[in-house]
Recover the amino acids of this structure.
């Protein structure tokens, strides 16, 4: 009996010892932590209820959207995040011994009880409005039955191409458009969203922008170290036609073709392009032979009267090309190798005036050739200094140009006293036109007005640094005093058609 008791006691001791080894210790727990954010804005969400299944502690997120569930027994869990008016979200989590498991919840608003916004009502411009400005303010009204904060989106289309422009995340019920195109019909529609329900759409309205003004003046201004072409009117209003990121200069309009020709830098060369009066439809005319001479700023070309052809120089050669880029033909070569810098084609297409010079711009001459390339008249030769600004009168019986009477010559091609002169082919006389030029200034790029009752030109200081201004000069007539008016400040290379 004694042995039986000893054996039982030993067995009981072993059982107790075995049970003590299965006790749960602190090493069998881990931590679940994480963050709750909006699924739309990704901003932290506060006071979100977070708990697990199987059950653990119930916790709530802080102002940073963060939460921590401590002392979670190791194992697999489904963690749940709940907040009123939001869709409950579940994430799985594996808790390891002494480990920290991180999860992130993205909660979406529930649409169960939400009322969508009312459809926006378009206000201005009214539907089918005409002659609208290129800078346009769109306005509408919008509301929500629950006074939810609304955001808007505008979809803009036009009738000239397939472009669709979308402006998003608009907080106010108005929006400003800029740089719209002339004579274009635009279609616009607004959608409203409360961030919960699907966005609602307005009806579609349309408006048409004003017609292009087709101003009669053309000129060049500097922007981003580039020449930029503008048009303007008698009131001094200006409209940019070419992009500020391209170098474009020397605009010449042909009213018959209703096109503007100009020079544009293209890689290492300069070429002649054409465009519509509103700056659209840019077309490269020259390709095989660029326009070139001693100085690109002083080089020029000319239209035929009907706008079908253009003549232009390439060093000592003169070329003619159709305005569609075909029919390139060499029509003249200087007999002494001088460069052709400027040319002008008479209105009757029977003669061409040329200004030629050496590689430095000097030893300049002005002479006239016929359509066969024969020199028929020498206007200026054998003088020192710079010449320029050729322009025939409409009859072709006169031509105006500029001449630096100082005779100054230097490597920078600086001019000191450049004045306007007119040559009469009938009398053979060349006379200065008294334009009341300010002392110490230059009159450059002179051209006749369409009626020839006035002249347009560029005036600037002879210091080579000051701004250039475009001036219209009207001589005295019928007892009226002559006038000299700056119409476009800080501008040059005028054209008046």
């Amino acid at each position: 009996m004694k042995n039986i008791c000893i054996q039982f006691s030993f067995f009981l001791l072993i059982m107790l010892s075995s049970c003590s080894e299965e006790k749960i210790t602190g090493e069998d727990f881990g931590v679940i932590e994480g963050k709750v954010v909006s699924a739309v804005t990704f901003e932290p969400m506060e006071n979100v209820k977070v708990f697990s299944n199987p059950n653990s502690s119930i916790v709530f997120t802080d102002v940073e959207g963060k939460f921590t569930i401590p002392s979670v027994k190791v194992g697999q869990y489904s963690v749940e995040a709940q907040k009123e008016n939001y869709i409950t979200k579940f994430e799985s989590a594996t808790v390891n011994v002494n480990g920290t498991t991180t999860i992130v919840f993205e909660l979406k608003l529930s649409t169960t009880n939400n009322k969508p916004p009312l459809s926006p009502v378009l206000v201005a411009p009214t539907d089918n409005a005409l002659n609208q400005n290129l800078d346009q303010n769109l306005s509408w009204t919008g509301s929500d039955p629950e006074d939810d904060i609304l955001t808007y989106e505008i979809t803009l289309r036009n009738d000239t191409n397939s472009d669709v422009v979308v402006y998003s995340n608009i907080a106010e019920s108005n929006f400003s458009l800029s740089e719209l195109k002339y004579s274009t019909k635009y279609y616009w529609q607004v959608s409203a969203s409360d961030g919960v329900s699907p966005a609602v759409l307005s009806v579609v309205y349309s408006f048409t922008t004003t017609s292009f003004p087709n101003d009669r003046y053309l000129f060049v201004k500097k922007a981003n170290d580039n020449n930029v072409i503008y048009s303007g009117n008698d009131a001094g209003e200006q409209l940019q036609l070419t992009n500020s990121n391209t170098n474009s200069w020397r605009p010449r309009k042909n009213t018959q073709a209703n096109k503007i020709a100009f020079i544009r830098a293209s890689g290492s060369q300069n070429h002649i392009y054409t465009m519509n009066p509103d700056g659209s439809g840019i077309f490269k005319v020259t390709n095989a032979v660029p326009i070139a001479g001693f100085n690109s700023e002083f080089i020029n070309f000319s239209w035929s009267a009907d706008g079908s052809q253009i003549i232009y120089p390439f060093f000592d050669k003169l070329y003619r090309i159709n305005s569609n880029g075909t029919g390139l033909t060499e029509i003249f070569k200087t007999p002494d190798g001088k460069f052709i810098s400027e040319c002008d084609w008479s209105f009757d297409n029977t003669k061409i005036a040329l200004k030629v010079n050496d590689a430095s711009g000097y030893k300049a001459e002005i002479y006239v050739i016929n359509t066969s390339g024969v020199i028929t008249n020498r206007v200026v030769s054998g003088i020192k200094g710079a010449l320029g600004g050729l322009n025939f009168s409409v009859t072709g019986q006169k031509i105006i140009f500029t001449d630096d009477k100082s005779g100054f010559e230097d490597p920078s091609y600086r001019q000191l006293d450049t004045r306007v002169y007119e040559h009469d082919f009938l009398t053979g006389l060349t006379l200065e036109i008294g334009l009341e030029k300010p002392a110490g200034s230059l009159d450059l790029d002179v051209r006749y007005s369409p009626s020839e009752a006035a002249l347009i030109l560029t005036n600037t200081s002879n210091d080579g640094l000051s701004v250039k201004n475009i001036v219209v000069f009207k001589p005295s007539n019928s007892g009226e005093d002559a006038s000299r008016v700056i119409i476009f400040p800080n501008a040059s290379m005028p054209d008046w058609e």
